[in-house]
UniProtKB/TrEMBL annotation:
This is Neutral metalloproteinase. It is an enzyme of class 3 (hydrolase). InterPro entries: Metalloprotease_M4, Peptidase_M4, Peptidase_M4/M1_CTD_sf, Peptidase_M4_C_domain, Peptidase_M4_domain. Gene3D superfamilies: 3.10.170.10, Neutral Protease Domain 2 (1.10.390.10). Its EC number is 3.4.24.-. Its main location: secreted. Residues 181-349 form the Peptidase M4 C-terminal domain. Residues 83-93 have a biased composition (Basic and acidic residues). Keywords: Hydrolase, Metal-binding, Metalloprotease, Protease, Secreted, Zinc. Signal peptide: none annotated. Residues 66-93 are annotated as: Disordered. It is found in: Secreted.
Length: 352
C-alpha cells in the first residue's frame, strides 16, 4: 500500500525531561534547556506547516548496496545543512564526531539492507545526510523529515549525541516509519512511532555488536549521560522507568504496562512516555525467542511496519493484533506467535 510520507520532527530527548531541566536552580542548565525547548518547538511548527508538501521520493534508477552518506558541519549555528565536511568516498575525518556520524549512518543502512532487504530509509536508496555540531550546547538530536541533526550536548548533563549508535538508528527509523506505516505522531500511534524507533535503534546496536537478545543491554542512549548523572541511559526497554533517577533529570517516568499508562496532553499525548509499554512488549518477545533479536522478533515488527495493513492512527491494541497476524503469516501458530501473544498480555494490551 503506497502512502504519502508525512515527515514529523522527532527528537531523542523528550520534552518532559527538558521541561524539568528548564526549571533547574542552576540558571546555566535552565537556560540551555529553555533554548533547546524553544528551538524544538519552532522546528515542530515548521514541520507541521510544510508536511503537506512532502511526498515519497522517486525510486533510484539502480539501487546500490552501499550507503550514500554526506556529513555537514553546522559550525555551532542553527542553519542546515551547514558546510560539507565528509562525503562517502572520503577518508576518516580528524573530527571524531563526524566519524561517529558516518559509522552510525552506516550501521543503520547495514541492518535494514542485510536483514530486511531495505535500501536506505525510504527503501529506494535515499542518501543519508547528517549535520553535526548543531547549535551551541544543543541537548538533542533529531530527524526533521529529510536529514539527521546532532547537537554536541552541554557537557554537564548530556554528551555528544553521536556517541550512542542506537540514537542514530532511532532517529533514522523515524524516517523508515515516515515512508511506511506513517504513524501519526499523537497519542498511542505517536507512542508506537517512538517505540518502533527504539526497537530498531536497539536492534541496530545489537547487530553492529553481534549481540544476542540475552547479551544486549536494551538501553536507549547508553553513554549519552555525562559523568556524575545518576542514570544509565534515556530509556530502558527491559525495565521502563529505571533508566535514570537523578536530582537534576528527575526519575524516569516511563510505564512498562497499561496499568501505569500516562494520560497527558503534553508531548503530543505522552509519546515518549507511553512508548515504554510497546517497548517492553518487544523486549519480552525478543528474550522469549532468544538468539539474535533482529532475526525473528525484529522481522515480525518489520513486517508489521511495512506490510500495509497498519493504519496511521493505530492504537496499541491494533498494533498488537497486527504483530500477531504478522507472526502467524511468517511462522504459523508456533512459538513465535505464542511469544507475541504472551508479551502483549503481560503489558496489558489485547492482541486478539
Amino acid at each position: 500500500m503506497n502512502r504519502t510520507a508525512t515527515p514529523v520532527f522527532c527528537t531523542i530527548v523528550p520534552p518532559h525531561l527538558l521541561d524539568k531541566l528548564a526549571r533547574h536552580d542552576d540558571e546555566t542548565i535552565a537556560a540551555t534547556a529553555r533554548r533547546t525547548l524553544e528551538h524544538d518547538a519552532l522546528h515542530r511548527t515548521h514541520r507541521h506547516l510544510t508536511a503537506a508538501r512532502a511526498a515519497v521520493a522517486e525510486p533510484a534508477a539502480a539501487l546500490s548496496d552501499k550507503p550514500d552518506r554526506t556529513i555537514y558541519d553546522s559550525g555551532h549555528q542553527q542553519t542546515l545543512p551547514g558546510k560539507e565536511v565528509h562525503a562517502e568516498t572520503d577518508k576518516p575525518s580528524k573530527d571524531a564526531t563526524v566519524n561517529r556520524a558516518v559509522a552510525g549512518l552506516g550501521a543503520t543502512f547495514n541492518l535494514y539492507l542485510n536483514v530486511y532487504g531495505r535500501h536506505s530509509v525510504d527503501g529506494a536508496g535515499l542518501p543519508l545526510n547528517a549535520s553535526v555540531h548543531y547549535g551551541r550546547s544543543y541537548d538533542n538530536a533529531f530527524w526533521n523529515g529529510e536529514q539527521m541533526v546532532f547537537g554536541d550536548g552541554d557537557g554537564r548533563l548530556f554528551l555528544d549525541f553521536t556517541i550512542p549508535v542506537d540514537v542514530i538508528g532511532h532517529e533514522l527509523t523515524h524516517g523508515v516509519t515516515q515512508y511506511t506505516a506513517n504513524l501519526d505522531y499523537q497519542g498511542q500511534s505517536g507512542a508506537l512511532n517512538e517505540s518502533v524507533s527504539d526497537v530498531f535503534g536497539s536492534l541496530i546496536k545489537q547487530y553492529a555488536l553481534g549481540q544476542t537478545a540475552a547479551e544486549a543491554d536494551w538501553l536507549i542512549g547508553a553513554g549519552l549521560l555525562a559523568p556524575g548523572v545518576h542514570g544509565q541511559a534515556l530509556r530502558s526497554m527491559k525495565a521502563p522507568g529505571t533508566a535514570y533517577d537523578d536530582p537534576q533529570l528527575g526519575k524516569d517516568p516511563q510505564p512498562a504496562t497499561m496499568d501505569d499508562y500516562v494520560d497527558t496532553p503534553q508531548d503530543n499525548g505522552g509519546v515518549h512516555l507511553n512508548s515504554g509499554i510497546p517497548n517492553h512488549a518487544f523486549y519480552l518477545v525478543a528474550t522469549a525467542l532468544g538468539g539474535h533479536a533482529w532475526e525473528q522478533a525484529g522481522q515480525i515488527w518489520y513486517d508489521t511496519l511495512t506490510g500495509g495493513q497498519l493504519a496511521s492512527d493505530a492504537d496499541f491494541a491494533a498494533f498488537a493484533r497486527q504483530t500477531a497476524a504478522a507472526a502467524r503469516a511468517r511462522y504459523g501458530e508456533g512459538g513465535q506467535t505464542q511469544a507475541v501473544l504472551k508479551a502483549w498480555s503481560q503489558v496489558g494490551v489485547p492482541a486478539s
